[in-house]
Amino acid sequence: MIYSMTAFARKKIQGKWGTAVWEIRSVNQRYLETYFRLPEQFRGLEVKLKNIFKKRLQRGKIECHLRFESNDTCPEGLRLNNELALQIIEKAQWVLAQTGDSTGNINPLDILKWPGVMRAPDQDVDAISIYLMQGFEETLQEFILARAAEGENLAQMIKKRLDAIAEQVSIVQAFMPEIQMWQKERILKKFTDAKVELDSTRVEQELVLLAQKSDVAEELDRLISHISEARNVLNKGGAVGRRLDFMMQEFNREANTLGSKAINTDITSAAVECKVLIEQMREQVQNIE
Predict the structure, then answer these.
(1) CB-based burial of residue 177 (10 Å sphere; 0-12 exposed, 13-18 middle, 19+ buried)?
(2) Mean pLDDT of 232-242
(3) Is 83 within a domain?
(4) Contact 245, 285 (CB under 8 A)
(5) What residue numbers bound the domain in which 20 lies?
(6) What is the pLDDT of residues 88-108, one digit of tens each?
(7) What HEC string does 90-126 produce?
(8) Is residue 124 part of a domain?
(9) Residue 68 has what pLDDT?
(10) How far apart are CA 284 and CA 251, in angstroms?
(11) 95 and 14, same structural domain?
């Protein structure tokens, strides 16, 4: 199975304790990097989450976000910190007295909004964490499935381009006998036009030199070999992105050499088409884990 490094998954879970939403997203990255945004009371889960990602993923920049809303409508209700509220009222009255504003009123809502005055009942963070981790596992599974689905699409696109390169190689191979004959006729014509007595040894030497300069058999053979190897890598699956990225460099090297040795427009056209296809594959490979 081929996995893409680009994916997204979101899952909402609910319980008596409240509501939580997990979000996991990833983009391309040379190595595995994880970033977390967790509520303060659940920061202790970060190490466990990071270890899970390391076991299940190989590459990618992973962002994991948890939104948590506690259930404030629980039977115990909100708790009022009476002592703190009285202290705030006393201080507020003192400030009013210092300003000489005897008509000033203290807004009760402002007192209630003061940090620590109103407090929700203490929740069992460890018990809630169990539910949160179950939700995380489900979200991660959906995330991996999304990476697999996208990876399969990438693999199919790359295979189509491998087939197209193989077609270009066949076209060039079909032209080679015709090109060799054209080369021979061209050499003979040069001697004839120059009214030079034909020397079989000289003609043979000229043909050998031309053949060496224009022979693309090695490049075609290597392209065929690379195509076969790339297909094997895709079929094998796993974390093959780096291997495929290296192979794209090898593909490009052979296509460049093929273009430099081209002696007619057909081979030039095939070399250019191969380079276009290789670049398209290279762009897709950047997304593979």
Answers:
(1) exposed
(2) 94
(3) yes
(4) yes
(5) 7-73+132-147
(6) 888 888 887 887 766 667 788
(7) HHHHHHHHHHCCCCCCCCHHHHHHCCCCEECCCCCHH
(8) no
(9) 92
(10) 15
(11) no
Percentage of the chain exceeding pLDDT 90: 55
What does the pLDDT read at residue 46?
95
* Coil vs helix vs strand at 289: coil
Tell me how far apart the alpha carbons of residues 128 and 126 are, in angstroms, rounded to a whole number: 5
Would strands 60-70 and 32-37 be described as parallel, antiparallel, or unpaired? parallel
Looking at the structure, do residues 35 and 110 belong to the same domain, yes or no?
Answer: no
What is the C-alpha to C-alpha distance for residues 14 and 70, in angstroms, rounded to an integer? Answer: 10
Kindly state the tokens that stand for 192.
């004839």
Distance CA 187, CA 191 (A): 7
Euclidean distance between CA atoms 173 and 175, whole angstroms:
5
**Strand bridging mode 18-27 / 60-70:** antiparallel
Worst-scoring range by mean pLDDT, 194-208, 236-250, 253-267?
194-208
According to the model, what pLDDT value does residue 131 have?
Answer: 94
276 vs 80, higher pLDDT: 276
> Are residues 174 and 185 both part of a single domain?
yes
Number of domains in the chain: 3
Unique residue bearing structure tokens 């990833």: 26
Tell me if 125 is assigned to some domain.
no
Euclidean distance between CA atoms 135 and 12, whole angstroms:
8
Q: Which of 39-48, 205-214, 260-269 has the lowest mean pLDDT?
A: 205-214
What confidence tens digit (pLDDT) does each residue in 198-229 have?
Answer: 556 655 555 555 555 556 788 899 999 999 99
For residue 217, which amino acid is it? A
Residues composing the chain: 289
User: Within a 10 A sphere around the Cβ of 144, how many other Cβ atoms?
Assistant: 17
- CA torsion through residues 48, 67, 145, 57, sign: negative
DSSP 3-state of 139: helix
137 plus 196 within the same structural domain: no
Q: Within a domain: residue 2? A: no
Please determine, for residue 278, whether its predicted confidence score (pLDDT) is greater than 80.
yes
